[in-house]
What does this fold into?
Amino acid sequence: MEAADSVEQPGHSKVGTLSISARAEIEGNLRRVHDQFLGNREGKVADYIPELAKVPPDQFGLAIALTTGEVIAVGDVDSRFTIQSTSKALTLALLLDTVGHQETLRVVGTQPSGDPFNAITLDPSTNRPFNPMVNAGAIAVSGRLLEALGPSAFDQILEHFSRAAGRELTVDENVFESERVTGHRNRAIGHLLRAAGVFDLPVDDVLDVYFRQCSILVTVTDLAVMGATLANIGVNPATRRAVFGVDAVRDTISIMFTCGMYDGAGDWACKVGVPAKSGVGGGIMAVLNRQLGIGVFSPRLDIAGNSVRGKLVCRSLADELGLHTFDWTNMGSSFLKALGVG
Ligand code: GLU
It folds into this structure.
């Protein structure tokens, strides 16, 4: 089912009236985990381009957006950072809506790869990228979007990201330019994809879309609301605008669960148990189906490319609030009900 332009879809949550005490309780949880990990200086800021190496490493913010429309954020809530690989989840959803499930699967698979995210490789059994969360898969998605939408592809991506966040987003032109100038590895992947017949477009045109989508600026609140939009079956819970269709959302969240956290995806699935996508800008967007989205920003990364404090915060929140999908208490699935708003 495709996302309608601005109508509501069945089954998503109503804008809620979170009680003052429930709000204070969530804010208390966020503050506690924020303060718990504030002193953590482990990891290293991404430095593959000078623009990212310049990012102040101590920034730290986190936000929860409920599918009732409420947002609660603590820490560096106004810091803007580039969305980077977190964009891959959202362009996947857009492609699924644009060309459908079958055609999307023609250009990209759904299997975890076991290779680094930027590996210049395809699945030998299909001659397609393993999944849309590694660079090869995301570039295939951008290429198919460019084929389907033509020159307005990036504008439509930005428009959908903006709708998912509930505000007009912009591109960090310096990061874009840096990615473009230094992106030889991604260009190699682009040529591999073209040689394999995944798309038949000039590689630089496809990479232009890919680098631009990675360079979109967001805040933790944006990531949380984008996550809540996915959790709310594709409808932004604050603006009530439809962004993605229900089938696209289901596929997207499923692939986030198995492939969203680089080489740490299996560990994340066990320890946190909430579908998520990270980016080397230091952001993580997590989705608790039908309940909420989480956004975290802390630029120091672990060896796999995931935010160190972001991982710790998500694990702690998942433990504290019982959010793990397979937690024996199953509290995550009735989180809103427990707050009296579901
Ligand atoms: N623009 C980055 C690249 O393609 C994204 C990396 C990431 O966040 O994983 O290399």
